[in-house]
């Protein structure tokens, strides 16, 4: 694995096949700055083809996940005048975040969001593109943009994909803030912990399941799921059958079948490098 870069807004720690990524701006409730967006994009680009990393755990330092966009960046963009023939600085600011969140959404890794405290705006969007989302007892979720006179431009499509149009309308158009239990009922998160200890246990359980699943098969499955609804079903199923044949004839398929017959864990389950 290549050495992970030094980041100003993120703490990075690799433990076995898991990269723990901690958003580290606790003084502003981990508000998402342009620098943070750039650093997140850099990290996800670097790890995409790193076979030693199979899962990424995203959480926030200081008791909050992410409180949304950084007010200082907004103020800075307001002070810049659009140059002739160029996009508005606010467009660039907003679109950079959208490109990063789309990258996280499409990552071949299993992305696990551990949410606590404020999970607002951009932080809410980040939670909505995770593969597994676990909420702690303090987590509060919301799309407050309309109460601030702006729109959830880059996160709204991902929220609709996550929970459907009907519920996304209610959250976005009323600027609601909801607790972890309602977020779980809506499908924003998958599990809710009653205590910090339980939160850590649920994370450990999720990572244990990642360990038992073949990395290439997991990545191919995630890519297949993302294609649903975006192309004709017969075309999708034809392609999926080709992928299935490749998988079952490949190294993972052979090892998985042999491990099942021999009643042992497959080799990838012990791969922690």
TrEMBL record:
Query: What's a single GO BP term from this record?
Result: isoprenoid catabolic process
Q: Which domain of life is it from?
A: Bacteria
Q: Which InterPro entries match?
A: ClpP/crotonase-like_dom_sf, Enoyl-CoA_hydra/iso, Enoyl-CoA_hydra_C, Enoyl-CoA_Hydratase/Isomerase
Any one GO MF annotation of this record: catalytic activity
The entry sums up its family as follows: Belongs to the enoyl-CoA hydratase/isomerase family.
- Could you tell me what this protein is called? Isohexenylglutaconyl-CoA hydratase
Organism for this UniProt entry? Marinobacter pelagius
